[in-house]
Amino acid sequence: MIYRLAPAIVAAVLTSSLTYAQGDPAKAQQIVTQVCAACHGADGNSAIPANPSLAGQHFEYLLKQLTNFKPQAGKPAERVNAVMSGMVTSLSAEDMSNLAAYFAGQKAKPRAARDPELARLGQSIYRGGIMSKGVPACASCHAPNGAGIPAQFPRLAGQYAEYTAAQLKVFRGGERANDPNSMMRTIAAKLSDKEISAVAEYVAGLR
Ligand code: HEC
Ligand code: HEC
Fold it and tell me: Ligand 2 test: best mutation among 187, 199, 201, most atoms within 8 Å of CB?
């Protein structure tokens, strides 16, 4: 009678699937040290602007990105990046879950905006959008302080301006197309280079 499992076994199965769904940061430690730390920092605070900081990013978003970098069930990868596609080939779904839990649990180091004038333009876009172009306020999805809103809307606060601007440009050009309902592609398509630099500069200084 397979369906009459002892309660202890049922409890064990439930616990392990729960851990799997949420990730176990301790199990990620070895991969972090051997692979990810070189580019993203051992504590998820990257030292290089081209490599995003991952510290304090939401678990669900990190897991989605790792999954999106890897081709799934014969379908091409939803997020295309030559560096990261190489990183995820050997990761299992469980590894990804553990890694997402690890970086979500790290503390993001604050960063300051470097160009106050550019950041002021960025602030007005971030908080109020650009009415004349139909650009919505970034704050409505990414929260006024840039902390994002789990599970769907990632944290932007304290991210390198270079990385944020690069993502807005690949959304605009359609090379990054893993945003649900084209949410970010639609918005980025309406932004000029100057507006992208400004809003990226502003979010770098959010904390
Ligand atoms: C050789 C450098 C390098 C290594 C090693 C590396 N990454 Fe990355 N990672 C990058 C770059 C560059 C990007 C930005 C990709 C893009 O522009 O789309 C990135 C992006 C990401 C993102 C998406 C972040 C976001 O905000 O959307 C996640 C998650 C990530 N990496 C996790 C990892 C994990 C976990 C490891 C270890 C298994 C790892 N990376 C190893 C360079 C690296
Ligand atoms: C309608 C909701 C919505 C609005 C408004 C919005 N975003 Fe987003 N944004 C998203 C979603 C959803 C994602 C995650 C896409 C994914 O799953 O890969 C995202 C992702 C991003 C990313 C990628 C983060 C990373 O770590 O790679 C950046 C950068 C970004 N948004 C910037 C902005 C800026 C700047 C604005 C305002 C001009 C804005 N967003 C307005 C929904 C929104």
Answer: 187
Residue 21, pLDDT > 90, answer no
pLDDT band of 155, cuts 50, 70, 90: very high
CA of 25 to the centre of ligand 2 (A): 26
CA 43 – CA 38 distance, rounded (Å): 11
Q: By C-alpha distance, which of 121, 113, 118, 95 is closest to 156?
A: 113
The closest of 37, 59, 56, 57 to 46, measured between CA atoms, is: 37
* Distance (Å, whole) CA 25 – CA 105: 8
Residues within a 6 A CB radius of ligand 2: 52, 64, 125, 135-136, 138, 140-142, 152-154, 156, 164, 167-168, 178-180, 183-184, 187, 199
Atom of ligand 1 nearest to the CA of 88: 38
CA of 78 to the centre of ligand 1 (A): 15
Tokens (6 digits) for 85: 């596609």
10 Å CB burial of residue 88 (0-12, 13-18, 19+) is: buried
pLDDT tens by residue, 46-73? 999 999 999 999 999 999 999 999 998 8
